[in-house]
Amino acid sequence: MDILAMPVLVWGAYALRYSDFAPPIKDPWILLAAPAITIPILFVSGFYKSVVRYLGAEVAWSVLYAIGASMLALAATSYMAQAIEVPRSVFVIWGALALLYLAGSRFLVRRFLLSVLGSAYDRQPVAIFGAGDAGAQLVAGLRSSAEFFPALVVDDSPSKQGALIAGVPVVDRAGLEKAARRERVSAVLLAVPSVSRARKMEIVRWLETLNVRVQTVPTFNDMASGRARLEELRDVAIEDLLGRDPVPPQQDILHRCISGKQVLVTGAGGSIGSELCRQIMALEPTRLVLFEQSEFSLYAIERELKDAAETEELPVQVVAELGSVVNRDHIERLCRHYGIDTVYHAAAYKHVPIVEENPVAGVRNNILGTLATAQGAEAAGVQHFILVSTDKAVRPTNIMGATKRFAELVLQGMAEKSEKTIFTMVRFGNVLGSSGSVVPLFREQILKGGPVTVTHPDVIRYFMTIPEASQLVIQAGAMGKGGEVFVLDMGEPVRILDLATTMIHLMGLTVQDDGNPDGDIAIAFTGLRPGEKLYEELLIGECSVHTEHEMIMQASEESLDWDELQQALTRFREALDAWDGDLIQELLCLYVSGFQPGTSGDKAPETLQTRVLPGMEKS
């Protein structure tokens, strides 16, 4: 088409020069010279390498350079051929026409491909919140998407409102509200990666009032690495809203028990254990031993960490060891063989209803397993032993929490008599996204159309992200001198009903209740499960002291002397041999202070303040 168009453009230049549709062209050779000179120059300049649908600024520069060079080349050819009857203005007019034709035709075709053909795919209109770099890149990417097209860009900055980003208007919140009311947008995509969690919560709180789906897109790093495509939109992670703005870890504390040392993690394939391993890998121990009783979980975390070590060129030897924490001799042999310096004990049965129905297994794994692991580590000369505990160990109402509290008592007793191993406990609440967490359960229920099951309308819980919890566990363990119970600052607890309601709203749906019988998703109250509490606490007593880290406190709590502890352990073993669940519960009531099986802890402390989630101010 360009070859055919060039002679026509020469005729057009003559016609404009002479103001005549039949201009006098006395040197017709120029009609052939124009394509013969221009097309090769355009090719060399890279003009024909651009894909029309993705044209950018580089095309404008290449065509500008090519036409400029062609004008000079045609003028020089005319001069050398002594074609004195070719007016000099013809070259200038031809250059302007060629520039207009080459650039204009491409951008018209691009517009046709994006608009006309794009509508054939029934693309969904979306709004993008954020007119920064991320928003601009998202607009550019979605313009060529077959599934979505950007209808609006929303930004709170007055200086950006009224502007155009790749032809898409930037509006204020009122503009988005009007578009949502008229159903001109099907979803809102957040493109504000650098804002704080508090700011993101404020944005989402307002977006919830529009009854549109709020989503995010994969990061550009994920798309560049091939892990995700632009079209793979995901709902806003509730984890991004519940968590606080991350507190930078204190690097000297992080490295204290890990860098250059031999580290072992029990329960390495679990939610907390696997994240502990990832954090430990980044701190470059000499060797990281993964201990896990689930073969598949061990395989998965070993493969992930070895791939990470190879990709990031980390000088860490990753070793996978299959076994159970109740085998003391196995633990001791492992620690001796690898010269283990630090043990993170994250292996535990933690699902409250399951442990409630299987008290024998809970005591064997959580209590005797902790004892066996601690004794094996001590016998092998391990320097630091850190137990990952739970807020359910505080005034427990279930078997799981009581066994974890007794595991703390075991370590407190061992810390009193040990001269070479520092035993430390770290206690925290629910972690978002862990196995058994309500967040993935609610998400699955919403995707299936509901109902979302909540045990009780007044249940509240503390929440923390897995990476933050793991970093704080590492730092707390490094501060131990022997026998301390460290408590992580979990912030303010969240009402689970508010959490469920927020997740429904973020997916662009409404709650079906008495006030809205035509809503999309119902919330069903199933009643408290056996041993479940309405609220959780982090401290047994009222005393806690601050540590060198602002997010970590040290609790001052009672313990058992070693002789009493040995007597209790003997009685637990007898109950296990007899397979007597009732006796196990009686023993836990006897030795675990505050254990009240079957109660719900239905009165929260007066000082307990729950965090208000987006859109829940009036609930």
UniProtKB/TrEMBL annotation:
It comes from the Bacteria. It comes from Alcanivorax jadensis T9. The keyword Membrane applies. Residues 263-556 form the Polysaccharide biosynthesis protein CapD-like domain. Keywords: Membrane, Transmembrane, Transmembrane helix. The chain crosses the membrane at residues 31-51, 63-84. This is Polysaccharide biosynthesis protein. Pfam families: CoA_binding_3, Polysacc_synt_2. Gene3D superfamilies: NAD(P)-binding Rossmann-like Domain. InterPro entries: NAD(P)-bd_dom_sf, Polysac_CapD-like, Polysaccharide_Synthase-Rel, SAM-dependent_MTases_sf. The keyword Chloroplast does not apply. Belongs to the polysaccharide synthase family.
